[in-house]
Amino acid sequence: MSIRILPPRGAPRVLAAAQLSNSLGDGAYYVSSALYFTRVVGLSPTQIGLGLTVAWAIGSVAGVPLGALADRHGPRGTSVLLALATGAAVGSFLFIRSFPLFLVAAILYAVAQCGLAAARQALLAGLVAPAERTAVLAHLQSTLNAGLAVGAALGGLALRYDTAEAYRAVFALDAVGFLLCAAVLLRLPVVARASAAHGAGGPRLAVLRDRPYAVVTLLNAVLLLRMPLLSLAIPLWTVERTDAPGWLVSALFVLNTLAVMAFQVRMARGVTGLASASRAVRRSGAVMFASCVVFAVSAAGLSPWAAAAVLLIGAALQVIAEMQQSAGSWQIGFALAPAHQVGQYQGFFGTGVPVARTLGPLLLTWLLVVWGVPGWLLLAALFLGASLAMGPAVRWAERVERVERVERAGVSYQRVTSRVPHWLEQPSRYSQGPRDTSTARRM
Questions:
Q1: Cα–Cα distance between 175 and 189 in angstroms, integer?
Q2: Residue-wise DSSP of 210-268
Q3: How crowded is residue 234: how many other Cβ atoms within 10 Å of its Cβ?
Q4: Is the dihedral of CA 257, 139, 344, 112 positive or negative?
Q5: Angle between the 342-349 and 99-127 helix axes, to the nearest 10 degrees?
Q6: 317-376 residue pLDDT tens
Q7: What is the rounded distance in angstroms from the CA atom of residue 335 to the CA atom of residue 390?
Q8: Contact (Cβ atoms closer than 8 angstroms) between residue 212 and residue 350
Q9: For residues 97 and 104, what is the distance between their CA atoms, to the nearest angstrom?
Q10: CA 107, CA 87: separation in Å to the nearest integer?
């Protein structure tokens, strides 16, 4: 079985190169930033948590207007500017020495990151045919994981040396990665401004009025609680509630990363439309339900190696559910977005990521570490319920979109006919006889 990470040549491969260029630095940043902020900058863990919570909350709100900016002014130029802004925000961390400056830098970083994600999705939509987007996104996800894995290893070197210079080198690497990302994005062709091709009618931030899309986004945000599950909740659960060896936490992370790199593209092949996407999300909920139950069993007083085996099974089920949910949500997020408003719709759909990053750690810690096994069962029911509700929500959004499309077509017809000269609208007033009148009407 061949494993192919990079997408085909052309725009998809350039997008993958841009993804790889900044994910290397991000991987190093994720594993070493907390120690940099505490040991070098001198912030307390409470200050770091508060600052990042505020920053990602603001960033999630900023994604929609920045996505709309990409629709109006072109996604390539907007992506380049936001990549440069993200690099500048990362670089500013090198010069902060107080909590207020940290908060400002963190907000700039989160806003630029959320806007960049929305703009790059709009750029992909303008360069890749709808039928190929999910497959390309699967390739990009594999590339992202590869970059994060290598970057995490580089960040591990900074942890090994544990010096201010080593940590600053990580931030410099991440900043340079975003500058390189901007340079790579400039190699892509210019994508026409989508809004300009569809006129200026309708509300500027139409996604905020789209209730079915809001419900779909909310359900997707619930399913994205799996993100802090692997990075925070499972490590705490493994150490505090099971007898499994502590090093297993790292093994579970490696398992997840390698599995996504190897199988995400293959897992996404069957997702070609909204029906198959809804099925993928529904299956992911069932698998995630099973995964949560297996994780709960690991605390049943098992021996260290038996607990380790159970945790490995739970992690394997979790990564299968992750790949299914990712493939389904990509298709749903794109297919339900109007072609001329992809940026703002993707900006709104993407708020699930910062919401999961902001609220997920607190919620999962309370459910799993405090409640224990009942918390796992409640979380399992939450994942299953959200996945089952996704299908009806998607069908609701489809019905509303069809109605609005018909209404937009009617408005377009009225606009066209309003520009037709009145002597064509009422030919009987200017005809010379019955034959002329009938001929004019057939026209």
A1: 24
A2: -HHHHHHHHHHHHHTTHHHIIIIIHHHHHHHH--S-TTHHHHHHHHHHHHHHHHHHHHH
A3: 24
A4: positive
A5: 130
A6: 999 999 999 999 999 998 998 888 888 999 999 888 888 888 888 888 888 988 999 999
A7: 14
A8: no
A9: 12
A10: 13
